[in-house]
């Protein structure tokens, strides 16, 4: 399924659904950020996806990182809560989802990077390299909040 993210776009379609999503911001000992290149929109992103029935938010974040990257991790904190109605995601099946995502800080524990059906590339990117990657503004915002050492989680 393909998707198009709209952010502060007056021509964006109206949302017709909302779902709980999670993402994980992970840096290695060298300060590099774990990033994927998504198969559904070809943009770079931090790993993440939808909460499934029967799991906690933290379990969902750990599962999504494992599924998309091959890396085992543990959640260590909250970056922020993102629910901007000006960010909608349109899927080719007609669903238009309003953003609702919890972004976690996480620590890599083990594993070797690999791609999946949701990630065509997995990279450890230096923060200075992000300017050369196609990253959606909503993900850049999460990364900014994660590296800013803010005392409290961001929320919108």
Overview of the structural elements:
By secondary structure, this protein is α/β, with parallel strands linked by helices. The chain has one domain (3-147): Nucleoside Triphosphate Pyrophosphohydrolase. It has 2 helices and 12 strands, in the order E-E-E-E-E-E-H-E-E-E-E-E-H-E. A 5-stranded mixed beta sheet has the order 6-3-10-7-12, with helices on both faces. A hairpin with a 5-residue loop joins strand 4 (33-38) and strand 5 (44-45). The longest helix has 13 residues, at 57-69. The chain starts with a strand and ends with a strand.
What's this model, at a glance?
The chain contains 2 helices and 12 strands, in the order E-E-E-E-E-E-H-E-E-E-E-E-H-E.
Number of domains: 1
Low-pLDDT sequence parts: none
CATH topology: Nucleoside Triphosphate Pyrophosphohydrolase
Outline type: globular
Radius of gyration: 15 Å
Strand content bin: 35-45%
Gap between N and C termini, in Å?
Answer: 28 Å
Using the coordinates above, name the CATH class.
Answer: Alpha Beta
State the secondary-structure class: alpha/beta
Could you give me the name of the CATH homologous superfamily? Answer: Nucleoside Triphosphate Pyrophosphohydrolase
| CATH second-level architecture | Alpha-Beta Complex
| Structure summary, number of beta strands | 12
Helix content: 10-25%
